[in-house]
Amino acid sequence: GNSVTQMEGPVTLSEEAFLTINCTYTATGYPSLFWYVQYPGEGLQLLLKATKADDKGSNKGFEATYRKETTSFHLEKGSVQVSDSAVYFCALSLKDGGYNKLIFGAGTRLAVHP
Amino acid sequence: EPEVTQTPSHQVTQMGQEVILRCVPISNHLYFYWYRQILGQKVEFLVSFYNNEISEKSEIFDDQFSVERPDGSNFTLKIRSTKLEDSAMYFCASSAGRTNEQFFGPGTRLTVL
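YS: structure for the whole thing
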């Protein structure tokens, strides 16, 4: 079946450290891939996306590259800030059925300390 | 900036009771979704809704669940007879088009006692 696996948290970093959150997927078709972020008390917000192999999504200093050969979409940021503390969700969507339901990973909590 | 809103933020109910979770999607959006996240588990798709009918539903979305867009602005999820295992965070989402970004609400935490 279709699924997303991401590294367990929490991930605890000092400010300005390098961040990697791993995400791998299993899909029967050719998915689009997403990273969503949830700040405390808020809904899920789209952080970045990639729709085909070798595409790089980027936003707010975060990047992720769609790697078809390794079925991965790892999230990276070169220098994290305290304000990046949140839960990060990797997700995929398949266009079968036409309505693009999202399939999520379990989420990874990031805590950044000054 | 337009946003999806959900009420209540927290709902506590007794097992067997009916609950209605409410969502107000972004006003010009046409596609609506419910997802849920049981504590410590994945966010799971429940149902999608377009043109006043369900377009897709998961195996979780059994006869105890129903959705409705009663007045052109609200989008509701009803659970007829709640079970302990329905305790979860329920997220509503909407999108302008089939392939457009889904915008999520802040969620309603449902606790069934």
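YS: worth flagging: The first strand of chain B starts at residue 5 and ends at 7.
IM: good catch. Also Chain B has no helices and eleven strands.
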